[in-house]
Description:
Layout: E1 5-6, E2 8-11, E3 23-27, E4 32-36, E5 44-48, E6 55-58, E7 63-70, E8 79-83, E9 86-89, H1 95-119, E10 132-133, E11 139-140, E12 148-156, E13 166-172, E14 177-183
Parallel strand pairs: 2-3
Antiparallel strand pairs: 1-9, 3-4, 4-5, 6-7, 7-8, 8-9, 10-11, 12-13, 13-14
Amino acid sequence: MKQEIVLKHEFVDFIPDELEQGTIYVSIRFATASHLCCCGCGNKVVTPIRPTDWKLIFDGKTISLDPSIGNWSLACQSHYWIRNNCVRWAPKWSQKHIDRARSRDGVAKERYFERAKTSTINDTDASPGRREAKSDGGTRSGSRSSALRGRRSFRHAEGATAPLQLIEVFQDGRMGRNVHRRIKT
């Protein structure tokens, strides 16, 4: 069992060219976290923060990354979790296990982006003042957004590149599905 390592974190605009061992650098602007491999081999590890890659949790004091970091492309093939700034070592994986996980990740990404394509609406569909036809031949004023009810939250756009783009997520009360609209920044 390897020794427990406590990392420090730094929020930066740009990931520095030279990384310091024991520090994880987080760029919200570029949705990326980078650090030197925790096994000590000196290789740079980049974890993109995206809905289909890693999630970053900042509790006001420490950071955590999910899922685990498996450096399968590096000679060390180290595997660990970063939880509350602490490195938690995970068991070594066989090549068969690594291949299955990569395949599963690929399928999950394809499904995610396929769902995102079908659930995204055009900004003009939710523009204020749009008139909709009624079944009796008349029209009603208002916007599609008046039919959108419930929780409103914000998240990063899928496949966003720097600077980050935001997408507004609504719960569509009529259709029971999430509706996404890109927010102009």
